[in-house]
User: Which sequence fits this backbone?
């Protein structure tokens, strides 16, 4: 399934990527739809089939229906990224027990911006098998799930010193796994017990997945799709797109009070994500609380969420990633203590002739201690969309703006960079060479639900740094004991990062299989040119197969 391309071969690769699942659909039942955000935004949740299964890929999606209401922390199955009619069925029975099997195989090809040294063009593969057994009763449920992961053919020269850094995800996986090109492991992915409480309450204890924003399933299908693809796991997620993913060891408590929901969550994240070993947990404490209120009238629907997050990183000796000098960061051994306070609102207007109109806003403020510095940062997202009443192609057009603050002075006592905590960044950065930290993103998207449940999506992004005195950040949070979890490259006064265009196609197939193909091209601007003068264009593509039993 490997794909390899050079810059000159990009059009051919794109055609091959789009043709692959179409050809596969003509065969019997070998592949099945992807669990990817590429499809979710244009796959109204009404077309998702409820399931007790756990998808194995991205953020929060149709799979949000996969867990019962007594299991809010795992409603999305750790994913936000799925084609419209996924072949997800109910878990299979073995006597009184529920059995789930999910398998994902992906081949990724990277053509990173051209460095002065190192390997920037390569292809590698990884797979993830998850097998679960559990039981659901009226008043309680339990589940145990094991995972076996493998990463193969990593590039051995894609990690360079200085601003060149890690030349794409292959370099990140290679560095995170002790410079071993091929490796495999197994670990306990989930092991929890959930039971009902008086006053419509539910408590969950053990190891499980958690995605912020997925506490409530909206009744309006368009609102549900927007929440699952544009709100969920911006700050806390399982990093489902990564080869290993993450879980949380802790407790979740929720109460449904009529129309509203209160959720409290406290846990410690596990290792994993890029590191093949996902069993151990990190010395990080995470606390989350939210209040969610649905809104609905005859032709309008919406959802309001207010949330707060506490993050405490007690890992000793881990060098923080920020815009201070290496000497200043090395001398700062104080812990990170950050509070994040925010809200979001999603609204949909249904009209009889003009189609559906939607908008959303999301915002957050942060304070606390960034080691020896005072944390003071913010972030904002605004987006609007339209679904015209065009049958057969079912288009959905949207445009938006995302902002995460940066730090303007590396020598003062304030850290002004918005800290994205433990997110799944890929739903919002499909070519994942950036995230929400010190970033401004002007974007537009076009999505289509085609006949035979094909889901096509394309996005355009114009990216620049929020502050030229800060870093160009990448990553999705802590995942091992000895590295911070985010990388950064000095901007040296440059704000312009890149323009990005991409396209994805999700194809659901019979018997629990699916295929997703994705291709993206980035045109680097002044910041990238200052680091990679040999070539400022980058490419990323993959072919992925998912199987659910």
Assistant:
């Amino acid at each position: 399934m490997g794909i390899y391309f050079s810059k000159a071969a990009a059009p051919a690769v794109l055609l091959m990527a789009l043709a692959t699942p179409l050809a596969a659909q003509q065969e019997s039942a070998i592949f099945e739809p992807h669990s990817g955000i590429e499809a979710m935004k244009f796959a109204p949740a009404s077309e998702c089939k409820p399931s007790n299964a756990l998808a194995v890929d991205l953020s929060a999606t149709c799979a949000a229906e996969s867990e019962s209401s007594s299991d809010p922390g795992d409603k999305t199955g750790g994913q936000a990224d799925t084609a419209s009619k996924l072949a997800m069925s109910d878990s299979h029975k073995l006597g009184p027990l529920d059995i789930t099997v999910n398998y994902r195989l992906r081949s990724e090809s990277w053509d990173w911006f051209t460095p002065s040294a190192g390997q920037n063009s390569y292809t590698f593969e990884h797979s993830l098998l998850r097998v679960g057994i559990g039981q659901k009763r009226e008043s309680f449920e339990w589940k145990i799930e094991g995972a076996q992961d493998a990463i193969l053919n990593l590039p051995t020269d894609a990690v360079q010193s200085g601003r060149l850094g890690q030349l794409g995800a292959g370099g990140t996986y290679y560095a995170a796994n002790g410079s071993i090109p091929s490796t495999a492991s197994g670990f306990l992915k989930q092991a929890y017990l959930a039971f009902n409480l008086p006053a419509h309450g539910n408590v969950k204890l053990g190891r499980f997945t958690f995605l912020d924003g997925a506490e409530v399933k909206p009744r309006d299908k368009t609102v549900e799709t927007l929440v699952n693809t544009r709100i969920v796991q911006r700050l806390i997620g399982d990093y489902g797109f990564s080869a290993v993913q993450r879980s949380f060891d802790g407790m979740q408590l929720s109460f449904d009070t009529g129309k509203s929901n209160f959720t409290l969550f406290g846990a410690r994240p596990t290792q994993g994500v890029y590191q093949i070993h996902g069993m151990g947990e990190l010395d990080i404490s995470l606390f989350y609380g939210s209040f969610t209120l649905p809104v609905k009238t005859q032709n309008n629907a919406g959802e309001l969420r207010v949330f707060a997050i506490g993050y405490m990183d007690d890992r000793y000796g881990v060098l923080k990633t920020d815009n201070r000098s290496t000497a200043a960061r090395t001398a700062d051994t104080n812990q990170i203590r950050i509070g994040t306070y925010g809200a979001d609102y999603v609204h949909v207007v249904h009209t009889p002739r003009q189609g559906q109109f939607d908008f959303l806003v999301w915002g957050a403020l942060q304070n606390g201690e960034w080691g020896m510095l005072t944390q003071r940062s913010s972030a904002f997202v605004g987006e609007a969309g339209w679904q015209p009443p065009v049958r057969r192609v079912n288009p959905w057009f949207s445009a938006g703006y995302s902002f995460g603050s940066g730090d303007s002075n590396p020598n003062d006592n304030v850290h002004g960079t918005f800290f994205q905590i433990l997110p799944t960044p890929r739903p919002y950065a499909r070519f994942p060479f950036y995230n929400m930290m010190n970033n401004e993103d002007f974007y537009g998207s076009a999505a289509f639900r085609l006949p035979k449940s094909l889901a096509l999506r394309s996005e355009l992004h114009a990216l620049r740094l929020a502050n030229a005195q800060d870093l160009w950040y990448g990553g999705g949070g802590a995942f091992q004991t000895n590295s911070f979890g985010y990388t950064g490259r000095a901007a040296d006064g440059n704000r312009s990062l890149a323009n990005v265009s991409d396209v994805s196609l999700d194809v659901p197939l019979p018997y629990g299989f699916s295929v997703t193909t994705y291709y993206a091209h980035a045109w680097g601007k002044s910041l990238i040119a200052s680091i990679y003068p040999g070539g400022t264009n980058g490419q990323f593509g993959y072919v992925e197969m998912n199987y659910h039993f």
